[in-house]
Amino acid sequence: MTLRVEVALRRAEFALRAEFEVAAGEVLAVLGPNGAGKSTLLSILAGELVPDRGRVELDGDTWLDTERGINVPTHRRGVGLLAQQALLFPNLTAGDNVAFGPRAAGRGKEAARAIAEQWLSEVDATALAARRPGRLSGGQAQRVALARALAAEPRLLMLDEPLAALDVDAAPAVRGLLHQVLRGQRTPTVLVTHDVLDAVVLADRLLVLLDGEIVEQGPTREVLARPREPFTARIAGLNLLAGEAVEDGVAVGEHRISGRAVEEVVPGEAAAAVFAPSAVAVHRERPGGSPRNALRGRVSALEPRGDVVRVRGVLPDGAIAADVTPAAVAELGVTSNDEVWFAVKAAEVAIHPVSGGSSGA
């Protein structure tokens, strides 16, 4: 069940051109600044906007073909959407909200209720079934909205900034839930987000839109590890080292990186250690003292960045970046190709589950 997209649109001073595929069970993250064309792309996929030319196909079914005059209406495409706001029907309970899709598709009342119960259980919201949206927190409402989207058995799932409206406490839990749920889906999923962590945790592949053009596209890990555009380099500003979850962190090749689990991780499954370049120190010799992660690598570049110098390094199984003062660089006397130790305290490292895997800085 592969989604194939090739579209072009021009409106006043804005133009969008995009060509990509999303395979069954794959999550494609679309990143880009405001005005890049992310929402326009979702509107085209949903059938709410017709481009000047293009084709959209899913599993051999043509949803859009401007040359042949085909444009399947939104309600016949089988698209499920989870947006920033839950947009639940305020007069219905959570259970009835979730049952709405199956009922609209012709399922009987009992069958629809059973489907709703199943999906509320999947998103850990069974206890919320009898509540109306006004009595739900932001995180709870988003769980119910996800269950509603999936209960309709969409052929294409679209996630439009699904965590943007949640507070800092609710977002990690819902992100972890999405990771678990999407891992079991066989439909293509398109995720629009401004947060690189969403791509790290949820996406198998990453597509970067800039001024209506695809400037980078590929496996999440590869795009973030070797960004070609300044925008991508900025959003990939975090260190992201992917490996296998262990009891207190992540095993990345020969290194074991300790940290705190921000979202639920399962030992033996894919996970990533995430930390800021400002949290990394550079040493000539292996550091001792307070508990910290020490990673041996080679300096690949020195980049002046205002008041700091970004020291980029290559590890046996990834890349790393450290922001240090010019005085520290001078004292260390490091240059490209030097062997050094990169150190970061465990308290500064966040551990996340990952979908497609991601590493880079």
UniProtKB/TrEMBL annotation:
ABC transporter domain boundaries: 3-236
UniProt xrefs under SMART domains: AAA
Protein name: Sulfate/molybdate ABC transporter ATP-binding protein
Pfam families according to UniProt: ABC_tran, TOBE
Domain Mop stretches: 288-353
Organism listed in the record: Saccharopolyspora griseoalba
Annotated keywords: ATP-binding, Cell membrane, Membrane, Molybdenum, Nucleotide-binding, Translocase, Transport
Keyword flag Ligase: no
PROSITE patterns linked to this entry: ABC_TRANSPORTER_1 (PS00211), ABC_TRANSPORTER_2 (PS50893), MOP (PS51866)
GO MF: ATP binding
Keyword ATP-binding carried by entry: yes
